[in-house]
Amino acid sequence: MMRIGVVALVVVIGTAAAWADDDKPPELFQDLGKSVGAAGFHLDDRDPEGWEAASICKRAAKLKACKLMKGSWRSSVVADEKQGGQAVVQELWSFSYGSVADARRGLASLEKDFEWGPFNKHPYHLFRCKAQVIAIEGRARWHTARKVLREHVAAWLDEHCDQG
Q1: Assigned domain for 15 exists
Q2: Regarding beta strands 41-43 and 52-53, do their DSSP bridges make them parallel or antiparallel, or are they unpaired?
């Protein structure tokens, strides 16, 4: 009986360790996060890695975007300058899919299946890069910061992403 318990424990620990290594966001997303300084933003330092695994699918698991999704990550992007005395915080998301076709279907679902978007704050902007969908979630009152970040992400993805 004890042998079975030890073997099961080793299998569970080994599986958890393998899963933890795979739980990092794609390099493209990590590099995009590092690039926001060029647009007058920085990643929130409360996330030691600059990102965290997060989900938009807790209440929407049946929607196509969520069914097809293999992983999702979030980074808080903060404007270097405050507006009206307030920190301008927007969220940058990465949704990974198993294929380019699934990413296209996931993007279409994110655009139409979520009445106000799957995010806590809106409006948001969506981009696809190969088998990833990148989203910017922002607050409507910060039009200029939202536009600057959107333009930076679009230009960066144009330069670094072969759409596939």
Answers
A1: no
A2: unpaired
Paired residues of 72 in beta bridges: 95
Domain containing 127 — which CATH number? 3.40.1000
Torsion sign across C-alpha atoms 151, 60, 20, 164: negative
Nearest to 82, CA basis, from 41, 43, 138, 112: 41
Q: Give domain status of residue 85, yes or no.
A: yes
Angle between helices 143-160 and 27-35 (to 10 degrees): 130
d(CA 150, CA 124): 9
Q: Is residue 118 part of a domain?
A: yes
**Which pLDDT tens digit goes with each residue over 21-67?**
458 899 999 999 999 999 999 999 888 889 999 988 887 788 899 99
Angle at 129 between CA 24 and CA 56, to 5 degrees: 55
